[in-house]
Design a protein that fits this description.
Layout lengths: L1 H13 L6 E8 L7 E7 L2 E9 L2 E6 L1 E2 L5 E2 L5 E5 L2 E5 L6 E3 L15 E2 L1 E4 L2 E7 L1
Antiparallel strand pairs: 1-12, 2-3, 3-4, 4-10, 5-6, 7-8, 8-9, 11-12
Amino acid sequence: MTTITQTRSRVVSSRTAPARTVWERACRVDDLEPSWGEAVLIRMRQIAVFLLSPREVYAVEHNDPAADGAPVMARGIVGSRGDRPTVASPLHKEIYDLGTGECYSDPALLLRTFRTRIVGGFIEIELED
């Protein structure tokens, strides 16, 4: 009987409401230079934003997963791997996919990514509420 109670407790505690997301305005599209990153501060979180074309914007965590969380990703080198846009860390040169956060040079690393959209000339980033 004790085992069943413990199992039920685990099942109940693992059920959580899905996270609610909100779109936060980051900056004007015109504030960014193509293929260059900028750091923005939204809700006390630093996010690196990259404008690749007037309609293509990426946002990733500004903290470098390979450098103990150093806030440097906006200064990374923008490039591509095939048709995938990438950013290379300015410190250790790990290469991350801007869309998925996957690290091509070290599969154990992952860079957090955020969805973006352009509304009325402004870049918006989706964050958990």
